[in-house]
Design a protein that fits this description.
With 164 residues, the chain is mostly helical.
Length: 164
C-alpha cells in the first residue's frame, strides 16, 4: 500500500471519529434540549393551574367579603354593634385575602409568560393566556372584595354613630 493511500485511510479514520464525536454531542444536546422543553411546558402548565386556583380563591374571598358586608348591615340594623364590627373586620380580612390571591395569580401568570418567552410552543402560549385571564378574574374579585369591605366598614361606622 502506498504512503498516500495510508494517509488517506488515516484521514478517513480521523473523519469517522470526528463524525462519531459530533453525532454523540448532537444526541446529548438534543436530549438536554428536549428535557428543557418538557420542563418549560410543565412549568407553564403548573403556573397556569396556580393562577386559576388563585383566581378561584380571590372569588371566594370576594364572596366572603360580600357576606360579611351583609352581616354587618344586618347587625347594624339590629343594634348589635360588636357583630357589625366583627363582620366589618371579616370583610377586611377577606378583601386582603382576595388581594393576596390576585397577587399570587399575577405571579403565576408572570411565570407562565416567562416560560413562553423561552419557548413559544402552542400549549405554552395557551397556558399563558389562561393564566393571564385568571389573573384578570382574580383582580376583579379582589376589587369587589375591597368594595364590600369598605361597605361593611361604613355600615359599622354608621352603627357606632347611631349608638351615640
Amino acid at each position: 500500500m502506498s504512503d498516500e493511500l495510508k494517509e488517506i485511510y488515516l484521514k478517513i479514520n480521523m473523519l469517522e471519529s470526528e463524525v462519531g464525536d459530533l453525532r454523540n454531542g448532537y444526541l446529548t444536546i438534543n436530549k438536554s434540549y428536549s428535557e428543557a422543553l418538557k420542563s418549560l411546558k410543565d412549568l407553564t402548565e403548573h403556573a397556569c393551574e396556580a393562577a386559576k386556583r388563585s383566581a378561584q380563591s380571590a372569588i371566594r374571598a370576594s364572596e366572603a367579603a360580600k357576606n360579611a358586608a351583609v352581616a354587618a348591615t344586618e347587625a347594624a340594623a339590629t343594634s348589635i354593634i360588636k357583630a357589625a364590627d366583627a363582620a366589618a373586620d371579616a370583610a377586611a380580612a377577606a378583601a386582603e385575602s382576595a388581594i393576596e390571591s390576585a397577587a399570587a395569580a399575577a405571579s403565576a401568570s408572570a411565570a407562565a409568560a416567562a416560560a413562553v418567552a423561552h419557548h413559544a410552543e402552542e400549549a405554552a402560549l395557551k397556558s399563558s393566556a389562561q393564566a393571564a385571564e385568571a389573573t384578570k378574574v382574580a383582580a376583579e374579585a379582589a376589587s369587589e372584595a375591597v368594595k364590600m369591605s369598605n361597605l361593611a366598614a361604613e355600615v359599622a361606622r354608621i352603627a357606632h354613630i347611631k349608638k351615640v
